[in-house]
Amino acid sequence: MTTILNRFDGRARLLAYALLNGGVSDAQKMFTKQRGASTQFFLRSFLNTLCRDEACLDKRANSLTTKPLVNMFSDAFKCDLLCFLHLIHPGVPRDSVLSLLHCLTQEVNKKPWICALITQLHKDIGSEDLGKGTLLTPQCIVDLKGLCERFKDSQEKGVWDLYLNEHWTCELSPDNQTDLEHKKRKREIVCMDTERNELHSKRMKLDMSASGLTESEKLTVEESNANTLQLDKHLEGDSPMTHQLPEEGSLCWDESYMPFLRVLNECDSYQLEMLCGILRLAETPEPTLPHFCSFLLALSPDLSHSTASIIIKHLLLGKVLSLTEPASRCLVTAVTSLCSRYPRPTCQALIEPVIKAGQTDNAQAELFCRLVKECLESHHRLFVFQMTLHGSWNEGLLSVIHALLDLKIEPSEELFSLFTTQLSRQSPQFPKSMKFAKIMLTVLTKFQSYMNASRQHTLLCCISFNETFLKKSLQAALKRISQ
């Protein structure tokens, strides 16, 4: 990369280096510092160098060829470059920018974001060739439209639907349109089946309560039942394929919607937060969670750390926070599967918020102990242990701490000192707690190498508050360390 940077002269090299190593923010700061009377010339030199043809090896043809210097940089650099030019476009030389965009469009396998940024820059400089196009690729429109229609209430159309519908007819290929029509018919059948079930339920409730009604009210109920039966027959007549519908547990996701999830890898954090809100991931029914998670785990490449964190937060955090009894099998399956693939995002987006909110009750603690034992490696367990050392403790959190200590984590001296200090602060609150006593016993038996004189004194003070039958065992364990 140093060889490539040497192609630039003076200030242009500094700008290229800032883009390469610091991204858009650093490049903009560098540009602001260098701005002067010769800004146009400086930018023109920078852009012309990026457009210069350079010799390179074509691996597919196994021969020497040439391509613009800009195409020898990474996709991340290209995105940062286009974003930077978008921010400063009023002062850029238009012809040089057009030459750069022409070079970038020569790439065969352009990323969707690069295509969108190229189109945006054409709009910025008023190019008549490509400036009138949409920023969304046809495939991206298909993916987003499918997601929005699949989860968003059809009666609450928002800006996504309005925007996508503007380009729907003109930008989709006939194959895509046919495929979408098939999916739309399928969704309509599902909706009709759901409506019929709701009407049947309503009719049953009315029948059950009719015994306590007046004669005139009973007539009204009978009329309502007759109308409902007529509507049932009408729906059955309109949907001859209802016997082919999948069972309730699979209505949320099936294989036909798998391609739509590819868009998750194309979004930045802000866009993904918006998309998760539109799709109402937080409202995903628990029975469908394992099926949905299996599709997430099948995505290639893997989700980035930030993307996985946002999805886990929206999909699982609310459900875990609201637990008042042991988690369902479906919720456990979903959490453990995502935690095994994305352990650190799960720790940050699911475990840490619950601990910080002070809502690690027995149901949450049972789930977290399972994650600690089955899904997390030693460094992730240490990460969770660090989370537990802030704020107040409760019986549920004590279960998690004991599970972590029982697995023999290896904290640093500083972290262990913080832990013993926290033990001292919390001991007056748990004089009769067996869980707190077991934590101290585990510390005295499994962490003897950490026991200096100061920590022994701290634990002696903690034991003095203890009122459980384990107190003698704790005193004996401490005495063995002191000898």
Describe how the helices and strands are arranged:
Layout: H1 2-5, H2 10-34, H3 39-51, E1 53-58, E2 63-68, H4 75-87, H5 94-105, H6 112-124, H7 138-151, H8 159-171, H9 174-209, H10 215-238, H11 269-279, H12 289-298, H13 305-321, H14 329-341, H15 343-356, H16 362-374, H17 378-387, H18 395-406, H19 413-426, H20 434-446, H21 453-465, H22 471-482
Antiparallel strand pairs: 1-2
By CATH reckoning, the class of the largest domain would read Mainly Alpha
Assembly form of the protein: single chain
Overall CATH architecture of the largest domain? Alpha Horseshoe
Mean pLDDT: 77
How much beta, percentage-wise? under 5%
Largest beta-sheet characterization: 2 strands, antiparallel
**Helicity range:** 55-70%
CA radius of gyration is 31 Å
Overview of this structure, please?
This protein has 483 residues and is mostly helical. The protein folds into four domains: 2-135; 173-245; 254-393, Serine Threonine Protein Phosphatase 5, Tetratricopeptide repeat; 411-483, no CATH class. It is 66% helix and 2% strand. The chain contains 22 helices and two strands. The chain has helices at 2-5, 10-34, 39-51, 75-87, 94-105, 112-124, 138-151, 159-171, 174-209, 215-238, 269-279, 289-298, 305-321, 329-341, 343-356, 362-374, 378-387, 395-406, 413-426, 434-446, 453-465, 471-482; strands at residues 53-58, 63-68. The chain has a two-stranded antiparallel sheet with strand order 1-2. α20 (434-446) packs parallel to α22 (471-482). The longest helix is centred in the middle third of the chain and has 36 residues, at 174-209. The protein is elongated, with a radius of gyration of 31 Å. Residues 228-481 form the Fanconi Anaemia group E protein C-terminal domain. InterPro entries: FANCE, Fanconi_anaemia_gr_E_prot_C. This is Fanconi Anaemia group E protein C-terminal domain-containing protein.
